[in-house]
Structures are given as structure tokens and as C-alpha cells.
């Protein structure tokens, strides 16, 4: 089995319930990846600046498919940046204003943005995933940035219902997907984690069958279908398990690192 790229989702996949990972084991495996010329890619719906913080000593060596594929950075260099049409941004924000219980973060290349009227607890929650998060008087007035995603928060029991509603109302402008922390992201149609991986594949000359991908949520499905070797966590959503070729240990059982160790041994 020849694997040249390992792509991991973060929340619910690489990270355990404590939002951390076995750093000693990962560092050992990362050295082996480097020795075997295997690229390690972080593929997440979260913000680039937040993702970097998990790898303080090697962030500038790694590649990040952040914001569900909308912003791809490799070794500190921007590879791809998507952009939502400004008219669509305004239209979607107007629609979201009428969705009961919706809390919205507008995501851009420079920063993410939240209305200053949002409750403090939601802003604190947003800061977990967006290390650059600015309060603004009105999201409709955010124009000095490249905008590429909406991150929405709802009560967990309403997520599936809201996903369906949003697909019907905004599905022609943005694509609603579930994220690893039981929220909903609205992403650019056709721009997803698999698209982000393709940008890196072109850069490095890596084929689909040389990719191993790991995920647990709806925003991982395209990536898992794209990769030659795809793994869903045992804690993954049902439709994600269907999309993957193999189901592995959960995120709280070191599932990703156990499987990476196995892949590197069999290389």
C-alpha cells in the first residue's frame, strides 16, 4: 500500500474530546512520515490560524486545507483562496436573519466576524474555532476581506432539521454541510475538502489512490470518497461511515494515530 498523503479532519477525528491529541505519539509518527516522504495535511472546517496553533513547532512545515477547502496553505504559502460573490453574501445574511435560533459567524481570509449583539457565550464558543474573530456592528458591512464561508450554530437537536431547511432556501448560493462540532457550515458550491486536496495533489504530483483520509462529519464526505484509502471514526455520523472504506477506533481511542502507524509500517 503506497500512501503519499495523509489528510486528517480535526474535531471528532484527530482531536479527542478534550480538544487535544497524543503529541508524543504524533511527533514520533511525523518523523516517520518525513522519512518516508508522506505529506501530512490538516483538512478542517476551522480557521487556518486556529489550526496552526495545534502544531506550534512544525506549523510552517505542514499543509492546511482550512475552512472546508476555501483556504489552502502549504508551508506558509497560500495555494488557494475561494471567494463568495458579495451579492450572495448579502442575500444569505438577509435570509439567516429570519432563521429562528441561528447564530452566525462570517468567515474571511483576514479574520472571522460576529455581530457585536451576539451573546458573550456564543462569542467565546466561536473563539475556540476562530482565533481571529472580530466583533462588528453589522455583518452586512464587512467588505474589506475575501469572504468564503458562514459558520452557523444551532441547538444540536435542530441541526438536521435546519440543514434540510437551508438546503431548500439557500442551496443554489451556498452548500450547507454539518461540521465536526455539531454546527452547520455554508460553503462555496464545489469548494470542499476534496477540492482543497486536489490543489495540493497538483502541486506534489500525488494520485487519488495515494491518499489516506480520515473524517467523522458531513463536511468530510467528499474527501473520503476522493481518497483511495478512507477511514471513518467509530464515532462518525452514519452517512460518513457509509462513504468511507473502513471504520476505525474513535477519536478518544487514538484511532487516527493507530491507523497511521499501521499505514506507515505497511508502506
From TrEMBL:
Entry's InterPro entries? Cof, HAD-like_sf, HAD-SF_hydro_IIB, HAD_sf
Could you tell me which Gene3D superfamilies the record lists for this protein? Answer: 3.30.1240.10, HAD superfamily/HAD-like
- Which cellular component, as a GO term, is one annotated location? cytosol
Upper classification of the source organism reads: Bacteria, Bacillati, Bacillota, Bacilli, Lactobacillales
Q: What is this protein called?
A: Sugar-phosphatase
What terms describe the molecular function in GO for this protein? magnesium ion binding; phosphatase activity
Q: Which NCBIfam families match?
A: Cof-subfamily, HAD-SF-IIB
Amino acid at each position: 500500500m503506497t500512501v503519499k498523503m495523509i489528510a486528517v479532519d480535526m474535531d471528532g477525528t484527530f482531536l479527542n474530546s478534550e480538544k487535544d491529541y497524543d503529541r508524543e505519539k504524533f511527533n514520533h509518527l511525523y518523523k516517520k512520515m518525513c522519512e518516508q516522504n508522506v505529506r501530512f495535511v490538516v483538512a478542517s472546517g476551522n480557521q487556518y490560524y486556529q489550526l496552526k496553533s495545534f502544531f506550534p513547532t512544525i506549523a510552517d512545515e505542514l499543509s492546511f486545507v482550512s475552512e472546508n477547502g476555501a483556504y489552502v496553505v502549504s508551508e506558509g504559502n497560500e495555494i488557494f483562496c475561494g471567494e463568495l460573490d458579495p451579492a450572495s453574501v448579502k442575500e444569505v445574511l438577509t435570509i439567516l436573519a429570519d432563521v429562528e435560533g441561528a447564530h452566525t459567524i462570517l468567515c474571511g481570509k483576514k479574520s472571522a466576524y460576529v455581530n457585536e449583539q451576539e451573546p458573550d457565550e456564543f462569542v467565546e464558543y466561536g473563539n475556540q474555532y476562530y482565533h481571529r474573530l472580530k466583533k462588528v456592528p453589522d455583518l452586512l458591512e464587512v467588505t474589506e476581506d475575501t469572504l468564503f464561508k458562514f459558520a452557523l450554530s444551532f441547538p444540536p437537536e435542530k441541526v438536521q432539521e435546519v440543514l434540510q431547511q437551508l438546503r431548500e432556501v439557500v442551496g443554489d448560493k451556498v452548500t450547507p454541510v454539518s461540521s465536526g462540532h455539531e454546527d452547520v457550515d455554508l460553503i462555496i458550491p464545489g469548494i470542499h475538502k476534496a477540492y482543497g486536496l486536489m490543489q495540493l495533489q497538483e502541486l506534489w504530483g500525488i494520485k487519488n489512490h495515494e491518499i489516506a483520509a480520515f473524517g467523522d462529519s458531513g463536511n468530510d464526505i467528499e474527501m473520503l470518497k476522493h481518497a483511495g484509502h478512507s477511514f471513518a471514526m467509530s464515532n462518525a455520523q452514519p452517512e460518513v461511515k457509509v462513504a468511507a472504506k473502513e471504520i476505525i477506533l474513535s477519536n478518544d481511542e487514538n484511532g487516527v494515530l493507530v491507523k497511521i502507524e499501521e499505514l506507515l509500517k505497511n508502506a
